[in-house]
Design a protein that fits this description.
By secondary structure, the protein is mainly alpha-helical. It is built from 3 helices and no strands. Helix 1 crosses helix 2 and helix 2 runs antiparallel to helix 3. It starts with a helix and ends in an 8-residue tail after the last helix.
């Protein structure tokens, strides 16, 4: 319940600021979640002893996918503020 309210709050604030469609907001939220999950896995694997190196690889891979998708979206929409 709390997570859904937080997601709705983030989507509403992003929608008001950027005037993107809801689909773009969900894509950006998904990209952000990928970055956070990847960073959490990577941080966990670096701080806890005895964790497999594959957790580091998966964490880094997820982080990089999220960063790539987010930067691709930003580059695509970099001039949207000029249309207003």
């Amino acid at each position: 319940m709390l997570i859904s309210n937080l997601i709705n709050l983030v989507l509403d604030s992003v929608g008001k600021i950027h005037n993107y469609s809801m689909n773009d907001n969900k894509k950006q939220l998904f990209n952000g979640i990928l970055v956070v999950v990847g960073a959490a896995l990577l941080a966990y694997s670096l701080t806890v002893t005895g964790v497999s190196v594959y957790v580091q690889i998966v964490g880094l891979f997820i982080l990089m996918i999220g960063a790539y998708r987010a930067s691709k979206h930003w580059a695509k929409h970099k001039n949207d503020h000029l249309d207003e």
